[in-house]
């Protein structure tokens, strides 16, 4: 399932590995991202060692943090996260990214500056809906309305992302959306902050879970009207950045009590 990444060259890496990427903002980004991995594992959102979260390095628009190849989400720590450039050089860290992680996330961050954080998972409920024909989400549950008008669908599953062209294709499919349902594959969530990407990922899976439960009854779903959906979306989006920040802070408090090593 997972694939080892082989960079094209290590010319830049040796020099860049000598640079310091340990300032306070980068340290906070490492801890925040590690917290997302750990809580995602607790909630069953990971799949083996195959899924990946990334975030742009504060102060460096050509570098991103990503999990190393071979670690399950529950093993990730702040210090184990890699810093990579868009050419595949690891400039901080001792390991390499998984191949699809590099080709998807490097191209997404490079091509879409809005994607300050990018979370890709095969989380079960959202992935189940990506396997169905038609629109994955039905605007029938309040939680789903957080995503009204914010989703895109990649209808053209094309195998594993093992080259830049596939990363570019996925990036183009994302367009101006914040969430991409990748048919026959999984989902991608992007955000302007790590906290907002986490918040959307969490609530997306919850929305998909209750939709599947409702569908399992065999009864027809009852969508809300477009006017009400838009109104609720606007209500939910008002204050969303602060709500997301507080959500992630709560995650870190829980982990500090139960898995304090995540921040190491």
Description of the structure:
- Strand 1 (52-57) and strand 2 form a beta hairpin.
- The protein has eight helices and eight strands.
- It is globular.
- Mean pLDDT is 93; it is low at 11-15.
- It is an alpha+beta fold.
Shape: globular
Show unreliable segments: 11-15
Q: What is the number of E strands?
A: 8
Largest sheet: 8 strands, mixed
Task: Figure out the total of helices.
Answer: 8
Order of adjacent strands in the largest pleated sheet:
4-3-2-1-5-8-7-6
Q: Strand portion, in percent? A: 5-15%
Fraction of residues in helix: 40-55%
Element order: H for helix, E for strand = HHEEEEHEHEHEEHHH
Taking the alpha carbons of the first and last residues, their distance comes to 28 Å
Structural class, please? alpha+beta
Q: For the CA atoms, what is the radius of gyration? A: 18 Å
What value does the average pLDDT take? 93
Explain the layout of strands and helices.
Elements lengths: L10 H6 L7 H19 L9 E6 L2 E7 L15 E4 L4 E3 L6 H13 L5 E5 L2 H7 L20 E4 L9 H11 L4 E4 L3 E6 L2 H22 L10 H12 L2 H19 L6
Parallel strand pairs: 6-7
Antiparallel strand pairs: 1-2, 1-5, 2-3, 3-4, 5-8, 7-8
Helix pairs in contact: 2-6, 2-8, 3-5, 4-6, 6-8
Which keywords apply here?
264 residues; alpha+beta; 8 strands
Concise overview:
By secondary structure, the protein is α+β, with helices and mostly antiparallel strands. It contains eight helices and eight strands; from the N terminus they run ααββββαβαβαββααα.
């Amino acid at each position: 399932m997972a694939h080892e990444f082989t960079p094209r060259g290590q010319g830049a890496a040796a020099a860049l590995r000598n640079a310091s990427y340990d300032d306070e903002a980068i340290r906070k980004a490492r801890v925040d991202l590690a917290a997302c991995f750990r809580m995602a594992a607790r909630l069953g959102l990971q799949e083996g060692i195959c899924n990946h979260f990334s975030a742009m390095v504060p102060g460096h628009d050509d570098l991103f943090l990503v999990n190393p190849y071979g670690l399950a989400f529950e093993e990730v720590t702040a210090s184990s996260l890699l810093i990579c450039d868009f050419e595949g050089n690891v400039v901080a860290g001792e390991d390499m990214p998984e191949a699809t992680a590099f080709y998807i996330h490097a191209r997404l961050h490079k091509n879409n500056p809005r994607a300050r954080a990018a979370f890709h998972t095969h989380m079960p409920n959202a992935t189940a809906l990506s396997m169905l024909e038609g629109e994955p989400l039905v605007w029938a549950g309040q939680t789903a309305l957080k995503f009204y008008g914010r989703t895109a669908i990649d209808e053209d599953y094309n195998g594993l992302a093992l080259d830049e062209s596939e990363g570019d294709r996925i990036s183009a499919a994302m367009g101006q959306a914040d969430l991409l349902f990748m048919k026959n594959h999984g989902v991608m969530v992007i955000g302007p902050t790590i906290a907002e990407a986490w918040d959307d990922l969490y609530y997306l899976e919850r929305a998909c879970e209750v939709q599947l439960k409702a569908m399992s009854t065999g009864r027809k779903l009852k969508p809300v009207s477009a006017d009400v959906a838009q109104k609720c979306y606007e209500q939910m989006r008002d204050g969303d950045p602060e709500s997301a920040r507080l959500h992630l802070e709560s995650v870190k408090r829980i982990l500090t009590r139960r898995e304090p090593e995540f921040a190491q």
